[in-house]
Amino acid sequence: MKKMKKFMSLLLVSVFVLTISAGCGKGGGTNEDAGGGESSGEPKQGGTIVVGIPQDPQSFNPNAKTDDVLFDIGQNIFSRLIKLNNKQELVPDLAEDYEVSPDGLEITFHLRKGVKWHDGEDCTSKDVKWTFDQIINEDGQIKSNLSSVESIEAPDDYTVIFHLTQNDSNLLSYLGWYGCLIMPAHLYEGTDWLDNPANKKPIGTGPFKFVEYKSGVSVTLERNDDYFGQVPYLDKIIYSVIPDSNTALQAFNNGELDILGINPPLSEMGNLQANENYVVGLQQWPARYQVAFNVKEGKFADPKLRQAVALGLDKDAVIEKALKGAGQRCDTAMVSLYEWALNTEDVYPERDVKKARELIEEAGYTADKDGMYFSVELEAWNEIPYSDIGTVVKDNLKEIGIDAKLNITEMAAWTDKVWVNHDYEIAVLGGFQGPDAGGLSLRFASDGSMNIYEYANEELDENLAEGRMKVTHEDRKEHYIRAQQILIEDLPMVPLSEMMLVTPYYSYVKGHPLSDEAIDKAGYKEYTYIWLDK
User: Fold this and answer.
1) Are 185 and 89 in contact (CB under 8 A)?
2) d(CA 54, CA 69)
3) What is the DSSP-derived secondary structure letter of residue 301?
4) Residue 55 CA: distances (Å) to CA of 52, 234, 433, 477
5) Which fold, 284-500?
């Protein structure tokens, strides 16, 4: 087998994301000092940071169900085999290196020795095998991402071998991303993983230990002095639950939060960028804001109505009014970051209100005296910018004769209604399409873990499967080009804007995951390297 010393292989496609420090910290807030300006010296030990979160985590089981709030917290409590940094590159975590067999059918991970769970027990290959077996056997949130895994072997305490049914060019990226944090087998084995005491008091191997959870108030973590990697500088992280973004911003401006942590009202971007005490990180992410349809039942099972909505949406207005310019128009079916696989010939249509109304009439609807053909509930959750996007989309739909009632709920209620039960007709959401070009499978394959549209197309499935099995970009590209063409034809969703993550924090916060100090080694919102220059 061929040794992979630098954590890259033909299975891995690394994509660099744009990271721009748009703030005006002590050093002027340039990209070169994304940590917030010049520091006063070497990193300092100690201190506590307070970070905003929009709601409580649903539980502390990191792999069972989709929970973006827990994902932000969990990557500081738990570890992965490998992890994606903020350049979308794979870097070591529990596995210090790995090997890929020449035929791509085996991936062998070599685990670090001496890693301890937060309760003092040894972390071994048994925990890794149990975690992934559990995800597969108990319908964990990324089960479909592991469809190529035939079996997982742990021949000794520090070796884990994934046996695959076929080469899988997406798998390594999936293992470094979401819903695959390694869990303690000694606490979960033989229990119901949905109803285990550790779901309330999590035990991980990560840089911070769980201390306390106060519902509706906060989650507190403390430094793990026995961490296998660089021991964190901070003493504590406190995640403060603040459901309203305006309230969170006020708390940030008052100095009650060190990292805003919650999407700010984008109308405040100018003020945030102009404040010399802040750094505002802007990062293009392999995701986009979108309008999603339930294509299986309801009005939008009719493709003509989906086409009408696609013609009626004003993407420029969404970017200008809802995103306050912090966006990038997207007309392709794949996120623009994966240039090697991008189909720029088959794109979503330009806005045409007249044509949209004609299609609605062709679908059998007649306008009432107010020019409305029918009414529908438009689902969005109460976090910026989703509620603002929903308002713009509602206005767009009214112009083409659809009376949309904007239903804004908390994320947990939205998730239950739209994501879990598919009890909706049309919705606004953010759609991750990474961490590789093959991320299209997560959203649009008939068995995709994020296929909330209930969409199925046999030819699409075949092309996505072929793209996953092939190794080189050249061989994979043709399948993704065709897949995007099919998505444009079928329209299970319409993208509105590429996603730019806005991350304001105080300039005294050094080693932020978006900073030059940490971007190569930290996970998405991993705070191992943060220290306070004050």
Assistant:
1) no
2) 8
3) G
4) 9, 23, 24, 40
5) Dipeptide-binding Protein; domain 3 (3.10.105)
Query: SS3 of 111, please?
Result: strand
10: exposed, middle or buried (Cβ count in 10 Å: 0-12, 13-18, 19+):
middle
CA distances from 501 to 54, 327, 450 (A): 15, 9, 20
H or E element that contains 78: none
Q: Are 471 and 283 in contact (CB under 8 A)?
A: no
Q: What are the CA-CA distances from residue 100 to residues 103, 206, 261, 471 (Å)?
A: 8, 26, 37, 12
Residues 451, 455, 459, 464, Cα dihedral to 10°: -10
Residue 239 contacts residue 261 (beta carbons within 8 Å): yes
Can you give the residue ranges of every domain in the chain?
Answer: 2-192+507-532, 284-500
Pairing of strands 236-241, 48-53: parallel
DSSP letter, residue 116: B
Q: How many CB atoms lie within 10 A of CB 405?
A: 10
Q: Could you tell me which of 437, 429, 473, 435 has the C-alpha nearest to residue 453? A: 429
Q: What is the CATH number of domain 2-192+507-532?
A: 3.90.76.10
CA distance 491 to 494: 7
Spatial distance between the Cα atoms of 508 and 35, rounded to a whole number of angstroms: 8
CA-to-CA separations, 488 to 459, 460, 481, 485, 493, in angstroms, rounded: 14, 11, 11, 5, 9
Strand pairing class (374-381; 426-432): parallel
| pTM for the model | 0.75
d(CA 272, CA 112): 42
Give the span between the Cα atoms of 444 and 448, in whole angstroms: 6
Q: By three-state DSSP, how is residue 58 classified? A: coil
* 422 backbone φψ class: left, alpha, beta (φ>0; ψ -120 to 50): left
Q: What is the mean pLDDT of each run of 10 residues along the chain (534 residues)?
A: 34 29 29 44 94 95 92 97 89 96 94 98 98 96 91 98 93 91 98 96 98 98 97 98 93 97 83 93 83 97 98 96 88 92 96 98 97 97 90 98 96 90 95 85 89 96 93 92 98 94 92 93 95 95
Is residue 146 within 8 A of residue 135, CB to CB? The reply is: yes
Are 509 and 258 contacting, i.e. CB atoms less than 8 angstroms apart?
yes
Distance CA 107, CA 94 (A): 15
Residues 532 and 44: beta-carbon distance below 8 Å: yes
Query: Which helix (H) or strand (E) is 118 found in, with range?
Result: none
Pair 325, 269: CB distance under 8 Å: yes
Phi, psi of 39 (to 5 degrees): -95, 170
Contact 79, 94 (CB under 8 A): yes
C-alpha–C-alpha distance, residues 157 and 142, integer Å: 25
